[in-house]
Each structure stands twice: as C-alpha cells, then as structure tokens.
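FYI - complex with flavin-adenine dinucleotide, inputs then prediction.
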Amino acid sequence: PYDVLVVGGGPAGAAAAIYAARKGIRTAIVAERFGGQVMDTVGIENFISVPYTEGPKLAASLEQHVKQYGVEVITEQRAAAISKDGYVNVDLASGATLKSRAVILATGARWRDLNVPGELEYRTKGVAYCPHCDGPFFKGKRVAVIGGGNSGIEAAIDLAGIVEHVTVVEFADTLRADEVLQKKARSMGNIDIIMSARTTEVIGDGSKVVGMDYEDRTTGEIKHLAVAGIFVQIGLVPNTEFLKGSEIALTRFGEIEIDTKGATSLPGVYAAGDATTVPFKQIIISMGAGATAALGAFDYLIRTPAP
Ligand code: FAD
C-alpha cells in the first residue's frame, strides 16, 4: 500500500504529490489524464511569477517536477469508487484496487457545454469559459456571456470593465442571479441583457469567433449578435460522480466538502482544487490547496498508526 495516493493529475494533484513525496513517504498519482484542464488551455497569464505560458507546457513541467521526486504516476485509469477498511481503497474502472493509508482527491471539474454547432470548433478561438483567465484577451471588443445565473452576471460585470460591450444571453425569462448583482449589471452602461434567448450557433470565420445566433423564444425568430468572444457560464460540474453513495460528504452541487486543512468527512481522505468547495477555481489556487491537503494528510499520518 501507499502512504499517500493522489487521485487526479491536474495542478492540485501535482502539488499534493510533490508536497507528500518531499516528506519521504510512498506517494502515487492515479489520473485519467495528467495535466487536467490545463491541457485544454492555450495562453496562461495569471500563474504568478510566469508572465506567459501555455497549458501543455505547464503540464509538462508539472509532470517533470512530480517525477523528480520518484512519485509513481499511473495514467489512463479512472477511479470508480472509494471505501475504507483500515486502508482507504480506491477501486479503478479497470477492476484493480489501490490501497493507501491516506488519499487526496483532486479530480477537478468540467465546464458545462452549450452543445451547439461551432462551440467545439471555436473553443479557445473565441469560445471561453473563464473570465479571470481570458477576459483581457478581448480588451476593447464586444463579447457575449451565455447564462444569467450568478457566475454569468459576475462574468458580465467583470468583463464590462475590460471589453467594449457585453451582452448577457439568458435562456429563461428571468435572471437567477442575486438581486445585488443584477442591479450592479444594470447600472453599467455597457451591459445589455437579453432574456428568453436560446443560443443556437457559434459563428466563426474559419479561424476565430465573429458572432452567434440565438432564437428569440417569444417569437421563434433567429437573431444574430456580432461578437468576438463568447463566455459560456452555464455551470461548472465537479468530477465527483464516483463519490456519490460513499462516506464522503458532497454539497448539493457535488463539490467535496473540506475543512481548512483539506480534510473531507472521511478520516484519512483529503481533497483539493476544483472538485471541492474552494470558492475560486484557478491554477494557482488549486496548487495551494493541493499543498494544504498534502500537509493535512501528513499531519494525519503521523498521528495515526498504520493498519
Ligand atoms: P483539473 O485540472 O480538472 O484536473 C483533474 C484531474 O483529475 C485530471 O488529471 C483528470 O484526468 C483527473 N480525473 C478526473 N476524474 C477522475 C477519476 N474519476 N479518476 C481518476 N482521475 C480523474 N486557470 C487559471 O488560473 N488560469 C488560466 O488561464 C486558466 N485558463 C483556463 C482555460 C480553460 C479552457 C479551462 C477549462 C480552465 C482554465 N483555468 C485557468 C482553470 C484551471 O485550469 C483549473 O482551475 C485547474 O486546472 C484546476 O485544477 P485541479 O487539479 O483541481 O483539476
């Protein structure tokens, strides 16, 4: 068995593994895809001390750093269930079971897609999901935000300070965002809000986004918006389906509940990054959380006799 088994190989998992391995304990990472969401990112400008990098480059550095400590890296394996007897057991979809004294869950999250034509083709070419990350790329341009919940209206307010104009496109006939956010958005001169609008297509010129179409659900008419960017804000889904029915407490959104040391409700199981209740989902925040969870797990190990 391992001392620390990290499930997930994104920024949170990599940081957790390095912090654990530096304690001289037997550490492994099991992940579907090393690098996580970072592998889907083009430009990264907010990883402090690195003014500009690209996702695959950062992922390669993460892997190199992890391997420097002799961490066993098992990829292309999906965790399917978790349970505890004296050890924590992680059952893989392949049928194998990995045993460890402590486990750190860092399975991340995924943005909910619109599922309309053009979205996939123009992802990272104008279709974006993270205003903190990609907002500055659209300085002085017109953009759309799809979704009128809290994250959509927060994104619109954030972007309105950078871009020329923001149109919020909401499917329902009301906004779900908190009143205070709606008020703030309405007070800004460069935000328009369209309701009862079903996004039907992302339109590009072959290399980048130039607009989008939506159906006015009150009349059935198809309308066009000329925009250079489309921020999809219809939900971030934690990769925690495999924990449902386990002893690990999740919020109603499926986020893993953690305390300030990264501990979950199951002793010996820690968690970090986008899969958890951490309020902001960013690379640098996930790495800090991964370090916290590893130190939390180490605290647990030195106080708990081996089974
Ligand atoms: P993830 O990166 O999601 O990694 C999760 C890991 O868990 C992966 O290895 C995955 O394969 C694995 N996994 C999932 N489920 C299982 C399972 N059941 N079994 C085994 N393994 C599993 N943040 C910034 O700070 N700056 C940016 O510029 C930026 N740009 C972004 C652009 C895009 C397009 C996207 C999608 C995100 C961006 N982000 C950015 C957000 C950032 O990528 C995430 O906050 C960060 O990657 C979260 O790290 P994580 O380790 O928690 O999870």
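The helical segments are 11-21, 55-68, 131-134, 150-160, 179-187, 283-303. The CA atoms of residues 82 and 90 lie 5 Å apart.
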